[in-house]
Design a protein that fits this description.
This protein has one domain. It contains 1 helix and 11 strands, in the order E-E-H-E-E-E-E-E-E-E-E-E. With 125 residues, it is mainly beta. The longest helix has 6 residues, at 20-25. It has one helix spanning 20-25, and strands spanning 9-11, 17-19, 30-35, 41-46, 48-55, 58-63, 73-78, 87-94, 97-104, 109-110, 116-121. The strands form 3 sheets. Strands 5, 6, 8, 9 and 10 form a 5-stranded antiparallel sheet that branches. The chain is elongated.
């Protein structure tokens, strides 16, 4: 039997109250850990339906459930470490996907990395 829990406040084992809005608003709505070398693939994810490989270091993760708008927050991480100048950045926030890039060096040339991770916070549509 399917059910519904309705509550405004949760209580920890230590007796502290936590507003349910804090839990809902502070929880990631999508995240992904992907392999960006060879045949790209999701290792593990939440609300991530597919990947697109555009070119070296440039990928799009599509969402199973879209965000309400493009103003969601994203954190990124990669294992690309070329003399401490490797990084991952957001190329485009769309309601149904996130385009991201791994790169290194002054020219920011796209470079495939074996580990690419992002976590996304915001309201779902």
């Amino acid at each position: 039997m399917a059910g519904k829990i309705i509550a405004d406040t949760l209580e920890t084992g230590a007796g502290a109250d936590i507003a349910t809005s804090y839990v809902v608003n502070g929880s990631a709505k999508a995240w992904a850990n992907m392999n960006g070398t060879g045949t790209i693939a999701l290792r593990d994810s939440l609300n991530s339906s597919s990947l697109t490989d555009h070119s070296a270091g440039i990928y799009t993760t599509s969402w199973t459930s879209s965000f309400a708008d493009t103003e969601y927050a994203t954190t990124t991480a990669t294992n690309l470490d070329q003399a401490y100048s490797g990084d991952m950045c957001i190329v485009t926030h769309a309601t149904g996907s996130l385009k991201h890039k791994t790169y290194y060096g002054a020219g920011h040339a796209g470079t495939d990395a074996s580990i690419n991770c992002h976590t996304n916070f915001g309201d779902l549509a």
